[in-house]
Amino acid sequence: MKKTIISVLLVFVFIMTASLSVFAHPSTVADGSQGTVSNLITIKKPDTASTSTVKTTYSITGVGNEGVSVCIYTYNGSSFVPQKNSDGTIATYKIGSSGVFYRQISLKDGENRICVRAEASDGSYQLSYLTITVVNSSVMSDINSFSLNMQSKLNGWLN
Q: Where do the domains of the chain lie, and which CATH numbers do they carry?
């Protein structure tokens, strides 16, 4: 009887360990890596692969298949490394029945290269690459000022 209980417990532990390892995102993603599929998630924000902002926090949002695990990686100069929770574990998000995922990330000034990795329970995964550039407010003000000056000149020429 005791051997039966131990055997059942060992099988249970093995099954739980095997199912947990399916969603184990890697500790790095090599620059230029490709996923095995392209249909697990669709990123909605940003709406293009390259965007800019004046804020040092940014929300990445999208939709995907229920049960898919999403992890955000940032480029460290040689590879992409996952964002971490406050306890040091890899920050992942499992898409629920709504099909929506949302992750707020911190950005540094300048160019921020991001890799969004989505993984299904069968081990297939998708990699989506983004570039989010943080520009300081004076640069953005100069751009807006230039745009207004050009618009004014065009209006003067046309009138």
A: 33-158 (2.60.40.10)
